[in-house]
Every structure is written in structure tokens, then in C-alpha cells.
Amino acid sequence: MRHIPLIIALLSWLILGQHLAAQIVQENTIDGQQNLEAISNGDLNGIARTYNNRYQGIQGSPYWLDTWYEGRIFLSKDTIQTTVKYDGYADELVMRNRAGDSVLAAKVAVKGFEILQNNKVYYFSKFDQSYMLEGQKLRPTYLRILVTGTHTIGIRHGKRLLPADYQGAYNANRPYDQLIDEQSYYYIHTTELQKFKPNKKQVLALLSGETQTAAERFIKAEKLSFNNDEDLIRLFEYLNAL
């Protein structure tokens, strides 16, 4: 009988601990019983969320790169090394846990990530509500950084869903939903993002004064057409070196 108060106290602490754990899961946007199981198994420091077959039956790929590649995920204090993919339609980082399952990395916990492909390193940075876009707080998103410095350029490797298109009762033009590429470019200055198209007119509109003049001269001298990302990289690396 004398041990009953101790048992009651222990049970109270267990119940309180479970309640606090549930709160922590919610605050980190990791939801569902399956996710709690993933945390209890120690998968990827508890930042994983389950990834279902949401694209089953849709033509096209949601991923920037279809193949799994080695990568590094940067958190506030830690770095995780695992195989990763970037889901451009959902704007989510997908990774593999210890069991080999595909799981989502909770965006609130991720600062950025790298994808290592054939000796090339592609770095994606997360931009959150502390940034502004067209006068509004930015919805958290991942941008692949092309150039960083005084002039920083990022690209959003998005995907757009084309709904099935039926013509008449019997003839189907495209009887399935399809995902297609939809890239967008951003000029990042302090805490503001400015969307632009990669052409001479819109690139020069991002700049002013002597910097704009220097850019115009460089574009003419180097015969830049902006038909590829390399022209953007060359221009803004030049401007960052001035």
C-alpha cells in the first residue's frame, strides 16, 4: 500500500510526457501516428513525415531529378546525410529513412539541402516568411541558388498540373492528368525577392545606376542570350566581383 502514491506519481508523469510529446510533434508539423512511430524509431532526428503515393495515375514526374542522389540536409544545429529527391510540385524535400521508405522532411526544421550529382553540388536554400515577395510575406519555399553574393539569384524548380483534357464524348485529347516543368527565377536582395524572366530586358530592370550600365556592357561584349542558366551565372558572378 505504501507504494501506491509512488505508482500514481509515475503514471502521472508518463501521461504528462505523452501529452508533451504530442504537443512537440504538432509544433514541428509532424503529424499522425505513423510519424510518431518514425520518431520513436529515431529516424532522421525526428524531422520525417510520411510520404504517400499521392501521384499515382498522373503522367510526368513531380521531381526535379527522378533518381535518388546522395545529399545533405542542413538543420539549425545538425547536418543529416542521406539520399534525397526534391518534389517540385509539392515544394517538399523527400528522403529515405532507415527502412528505405520515402518520407518528407518537415520544412519548418530544414534550413537548406544539397543534392550531389556526378561530382556536381546543387544547393537549395529555404526562404521563409521573413522574406517579402510582391508586397506579401513569402510562403516558405526552396530555391536552388545559382549565384550568391551582393546579387543573389535563385530558381524555383516547380511543376504544374495539367488536368485531363477530353474533347467530345469519345475522342480524348489527353485523358490523364500530367505534371510539367514550371521554372521561375528570383532576384534576392536583403529580405525581398523579385521574380523575373531570364531575358535582357527584365534582367537589366533588376539593376540600376552604374551596375546596370556595367551589366549592359558585359551582356553585349559576351553576347549573352540568357537561353541557359550559364549566362545568368556569368553575368551575376561578374557583377558580384566588381
Folded structure, characterized:
Helices cover 27% and strands 36% of the residues. It is α+β, with helices and mostly antiparallel strands and 242 residues long. A 13-stranded mixed sheet has the order 1-5-4-3-2-6-7-10-11-14-15-8-9. A two-stranded antiparallel sheet has the order 12-13. Strand 2 and strand 3 form a beta hairpin. The longest helix has 24 residues, at 4-27.
Descriptors:
alpha+beta, 13-stranded mixed β-sheet, two-stranded antiparallel sheet, 242 residues, globular
Number of helices: 5
Order of helices and strands: HHEEEEEEEEEEEEEEEHHH
Class by alpha and beta content: alpha+beta
Biggest β-sheet strands, sense, barrel: 13 strands, mixed
Count of β-strands: 15
State the distance separating the first and last CA atoms. 81 Å
Percent helix among the residues?
A: 25-40%
Spatial extent as radius of gyration: 23 Å
Strand order of the largest sheet: 1-5-4-3-2-6-7-10-11-14-15-8-9
Low-confidence stretches: 1-42
Shape: globular
> Averaged pLDDT, please?
81
Strand content: 35-45%
